[in-house]
């Protein structure tokens, strides 16, 4: 149930020669990185949409850039071989050199591959001849393990970066990506997510639209129709959603009935800050260069207050809880807001262990938002990059080009039921409203555990009438973490 993956120059003739070598050997770019966290969107807002960004769209079959951005020629008007590809060929894997193949690809993962992922890894090895070696660690030890591998001379070629380890992981342990190695102009890459980790115009990671490896960290609300029916709930959340009537008020109404009539938990949140994010607001925002404390923003404060009042009221009335997987596994819960990872058939088995496994017994709906307002899907996007001193960045680029491409796997068949697939497609569709969750990463940048212990838990257990003043009192903690994070960002040149 862990989120998915959590990614010198010389001069003259020497520089030109080295550049060509780097292209075909997969040499990495300038190294930079840290072990703490959070993630940013592409502009000053806290939200991100799943549509393609309005920046230059590049034909994936067209070479659009050259070394140093120019045509190189001498007095005899002869052309040189300095042009470097920044898009993939029509058959990307036809371009893999023997040098790249011989090095293999080293991947750092925080869990075992799912069956779908393992099949992708196996098929990539068969197709390309590139051997894949995987080092497995835990999510909590991911950054520490990465630092250890880099220091020990065994840097992973493929590393995952999410909202809980940006900018720290980037500035201490990752290298900025070279356009010719990762083919950054190619239209296959999903810039909306990549921009969330972009610093001063430089990319640290890549993503691809629709891939499980990025999209399974979108949040949805699971529910069990039989539990709702037994509690006297006559309205189906998915039906309410399609009618435009699924909101915080309806969610509370249903959760309250379940809690009162069945004694089960009305609603569980994998993270107690999810109602804040579903309102499209966060404690901080990111503009691609630095973070900003939104607690000084009147408009943001209004939404923050409203969302945390709702959260606190659910807590006070005893109808909500935090992570409650045991109750989920036993079917003793009405609504369960968590990442889409549980919609994958193999993971559904783990999450709903003792729940009858039929398509009618477990369903899902996009998260609810404020009545009369826009509901945003909270998102912790997983993107992928390359560690400092990695031996095969080019191999990593080809691996991710294959691993993240939904054309190489049975996406439709990976969902537990058709309704899960429909919801997943809805929240990942072009134009869907999403918000990158970055508050935890920034606040915990100074001291791990501060976000949950001194902000989330405090707000969730504050009376509704005290939320506004409590938010104001927390401004300093957010600022402290933000300043530390911004200091790290300045290291990226």
Report on this model:
The chain has 493 residues and is of the alpha/beta class. The protein has 2 domains: 12-216 and 382-413, Periplasmic binding protein-like II (D-Maltodextrin-Binding Protein, domain 2, 3-Layer(aba) Sandwich), CATH 3.40.190; 219-380 and 416-489, D-Maltodextrin-Binding Protein, domain 2 (3-Layer(aba) Sandwich), CATH 3.40.190. The chain has helices at residues 12-25, 98-103, 115-128, 142-151, 168-173, 179-182, 191-194, 212-215, 225-230, 237-242, 248-262, 274-278, 298-316, 325-329, 345-351, 393-403, 418-428, 439-443, 450-460, 467-473, 475-489; strands spanning 31-33, 47-49, 105-109, 132-136, 159-161, 174-175, 219-223, 265-269, 284-286, 291-293, 320-321, 333-339, 363-366, 377-379, 383-385, 433-436. The protein has a 5-stranded mixed beta sheet with strand order 11-8-12-7-13. The longest helix has 19 residues, at 298-316. The chain is globular, with a radius of gyration of 23 Å.
């Amino acid at each position: 149930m862990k989120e998915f993956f959590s990614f010198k120059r010389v001069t003259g003739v020497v520089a030109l020669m080295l550049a060509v070598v780097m292209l075909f050997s997969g040499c990495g770019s300038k190294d930079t990185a840290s072990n703490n966290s959070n993630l940013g969107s592409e502009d000053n807002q806290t939200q991100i949409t799943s549509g393609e960004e309005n920046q230059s769209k590049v034909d994936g079959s067209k070479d659009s850039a050259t070394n140093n951005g120019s045509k190189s020629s001498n007095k005899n008007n002869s052309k040189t071989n300095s042009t470097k590809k920044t898009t993939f060929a029509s058959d990307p894997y036809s371009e893999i050199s023997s040098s790249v193949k011989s090095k293999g690809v080293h991947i750092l993962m925080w869990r075992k591959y799912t069956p779908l992922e393992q099949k992708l890894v196996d098929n990539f090895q068969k197709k390309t001849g590139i051997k894949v070696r995987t080092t497995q660690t835990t999510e909590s030890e991911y950054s520490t393990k990465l630092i250890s591998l880099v220091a020990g001379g065994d840097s992973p070629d493929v590393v995952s970066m999410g909202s809980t380890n940006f900018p720290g992981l980037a500035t201490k342990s990752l290298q900025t990506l070279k356009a010719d190695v990762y083919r950054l102009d190619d239209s296959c890459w999903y810039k909306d997510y990549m921009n969330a980790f972009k610093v001063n115009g430089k990319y640290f990671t890549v993503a691809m639209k629709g891939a499980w490896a990025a999209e399974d960290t979108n949040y949805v609300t699971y529910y069990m129709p039989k539990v709702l029916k037994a509690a006297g709930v006559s309205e189906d959340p998915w039906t309410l959603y399609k009618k435009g009537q699924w909101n915080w008020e309806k969610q509370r109404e249903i959760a309250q009935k379940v809690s009162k009539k069945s004694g089960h938990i009305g609603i569980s949140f994998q993270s107690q800050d999810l109602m804040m994010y579903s309102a499209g607001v966060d404690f901080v925002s990111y503009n691609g260069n630095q973070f900003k404390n939104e607690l000084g923003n009147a408009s943001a404060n209004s939404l923050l207050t409203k969302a945390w009042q709702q959260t606190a009221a659910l807590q006070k009335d005893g109808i909500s809880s935090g992570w409650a997987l045991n109750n989920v596994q036993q079917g003793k819960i009405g609504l369960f807001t968590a990442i889409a990872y549980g919609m994958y058939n193999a993971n559904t088995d783990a999450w709903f262990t003792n729940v009858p496994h039929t398509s009618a017994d477990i369903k899902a709906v996009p998260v609810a938002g404020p009545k009369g307002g826009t509901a945003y899907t909270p998102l912790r996007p997983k993107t992928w990059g390359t560690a400092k001193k990695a031996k095969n960045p080019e191999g990593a680029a080809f691996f991710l080009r294959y691993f993240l491409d939904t054309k190489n796997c049975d996406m439709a068949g990976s969902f537990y039921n058709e309704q899960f697939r429909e919801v997943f497609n809805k929240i990942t569709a072009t134009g869907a409203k999403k918000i990158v969750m970055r508050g935890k990463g920034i606040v915990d940048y100074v001291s791990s555990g501060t976000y949950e212990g001194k902000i989330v838990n405090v707000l969730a257990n504050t009376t509704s009438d005290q939320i506004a003043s409590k938010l104001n009192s927390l401004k300093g903690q957010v600022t402290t973490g933000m300043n530390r994070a911004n200091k790290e960002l300045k290291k990226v040149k």
